Each structure stands twice: as C-alpha cells, then as structure tokens.
UniProtKB/TrEMBL annotation:
HAMAP family: ISPT. This is Ditrans,polycis-undecaprenyl-diphosphate synthase ((2E,6E)-farnesyl-diphosphate specific). It catalyses: 8 isopentenyl diphosphate + (2E,6E)-farnesyl diphosphate = di-trans,octa-cis-undecaprenyl diphosphate + 8 diphosphate. Its EC number is 2.5.1.31. It comes from SAR86 cluster bacterium SAR86E.
Length: 243
C-alpha cells in the first residue's frame, strides 16, 4: 500500500503505461531462475495497481508479454503461462473489490485454452460500468502487429463499403487498433534500457516517457508516485508555443 504521505497524491483520469522490464536480470542477481523473477514481478503488479487506483488514474496499461517474447525458451513461456493463470485466480477477487476493470489485449491464443478461458472470465467478472481504474494488460502484444491488423480491417471495411477512405482520421484509426486506450499521458520503463520494444507505437505520439534503472521486481509504490509527481510538473506543449 502507498504510505500515508503519498496516498493523498492524485492525478485523476491520467492514462499511464509501464514497460515492466528487468525480471530476468533480477532473478540472475539473486541467483534464482527466471520464473522466480517473473513471479516476483507479479507481486509488484499487485501493489502498483493498488497505488494507481489510490492515485485515481483513469487507466494503467501494463506490457506483460510482447510478440517478440514468443521467441523465448519454451520453459520460460510455460512458467509465464502458469503465472498468468495463478495471478488471475488470486488477484481477480481483489480487483472486483476495488472495482478495477480488467482488459487483456494482444494475441495470446497461443497460451492455450486454459489461459484464454481464465481471461474471458476475468474480463466478464470485472466488467464494471463505472470502474475505479481500467487495468489493461498487453499480452502477446506488438505495436506493429496492432497497426497492421488495423490496416487490414480498414481495407476490408473499405472493400465492403462499410468505411470510406475520406473519413479515416485519428479517431477512426484508434477504433481499429486492438489496444483499448487512446492517447497515453505517461509511459514508464523500468530496467534501465531506453527503448520502446514495440509497445504502443501509434499511441505514444505525445506521451511523456520516463526511464528508470530499477529492475521491475524492485520497483516500489514510492518510485511510482515519484514518477507521477515528476509527470505532474512537466509542461506538455504538443508542438505549440508555451503560454
Ligand atoms: C520483463 O522482464 C518481462 C517479460 C519480457 C516477460 P525480462 O524477462 O525481459 O527481464 P530482463 O530484461 O531479461 O532482465
Ligand atoms: C519489453 O521487454 C517487453 C515487456 C516488458 C513485456 P523485453 O525485455 O522483451 O525488451 P527488449 O528485448 O529488451 O527490447
Ligand atoms: Mg527485458
């Protein structure tokens, strides 16, 4: 839980995202296997979601597994699969209590029926009309794949006269994308690397990006609040002259 000093800090409606990187290095540093690193990572997710709800964010989008991560060793992927099922089982009751709406996006069919069924059920169980927070989990997600599938869908709709080329704008393009968000205000990447790794490419146009060296399993509520506070002091100009 966020400590009392910070629990009063809020950024109502803010759309934030996190590239949760560093589980593997954390495991190595602590002479554990990589799955233990991911397991510790899930624990951090729970606390950061709680903090995000307390800070009254509108949405929190978490990069859990990328399209490129499918190339990792089978054993690691199996470990992640088991963790997803375990995490949904243990966390959803708490999310329901907190009125957090859970949404998974990306191509995660290859995790198998047990995972897709658990995800379906979790999404149904948390389908609140007025959620306290929207929690979006990117699983098997790639920004490029998202843009390509959106383009294909649009082409099909143009061919069948459901969409006219002239009407395509940002608003419509967002609707065809898989990610259940529009513009992002803040993106945080943990783990020390300064890259996007194929996350929400279309959405990041004017997002404030913060990189921090902390490995994800060591990331704390306090650090998260610090990122939010830093964000709140940033002047966002969107290409215009400042006032
Ligand atoms: C992020 O941690 C989690 C996933 C990509 C699934 P990593 O496993 O990439 O951790 P590092 O970057 O190897 O330390
Ligand atoms: C980004 O981390 C993806 C997730 C955190 C899910 P990676 O570890 O896959 O990214 P790279 O390989 O360092 O770019
Ligand atoms: Mg990594």
């Amino acid at each position: 839980m966020a400590n009392n000093n910070n629990s009063s800090f809020t950024l109502p409606g803010l759309n934030a995202a996190i590239i949760m990187d560093g589980n593997g290095r954390w495991a190595k540093k602590n002479t554990m296997n990589v799955t233990s690193g991911h397991e510790k990572g899930v624990d951090v997710v729970r606390r950061i979601v709680e903090t995000a709800a307390e800070a009254k964010l509108g949405s929190l989008s978490l990069y859990a597994f990328s399209t490129e991560n499918w190339s990792r060793p089978k054993k690691e992927i199996l470990g992640i699969k088991k963790l997803i099922i375990k995490a949904i089982d243990s966390q959803v009751p708490e999310l329901i209590k907190q009125k957090v709406k859970l949404d998974f996006f990306g191509d995660f069919e290859d995790f198998g029926k047990q995972v897709t069924d658990a995800i379906d059920q979790a999404q149904k169980d948390t389908d609140f009309q007025h959620p306290s927070l929207k929690l979006n989990i990117a699983l098997g997600y790639g920004g490029r794949a998202d843009i390509i599938q959106a383009t294909k869908l649009m082409a099909n709709d143009i061919n069948s006269d459901k969409l006219s080329v002239e009407t395509i704008n940002d608003e419509i393009f967002f609707k065809y994308l898989n990610a259940p968000i529009r513009e992002l205000d803040l993106l945080i990447r943990t783990g020390g690397d300064h890259r996007i790794s194929n996350f929400l490419l279309y959405h990041l146009a004017y997002t404030e990006i913060q990189f921090c060296d902390t490995l994800w399993p060591d990331f704390t509520e306090l650090e998260f609040i610090k990122c939010l506070k830093k964000f709140s002091k940033t002047e966002r100009r969107f290409g215009k002259r400042s006032n």
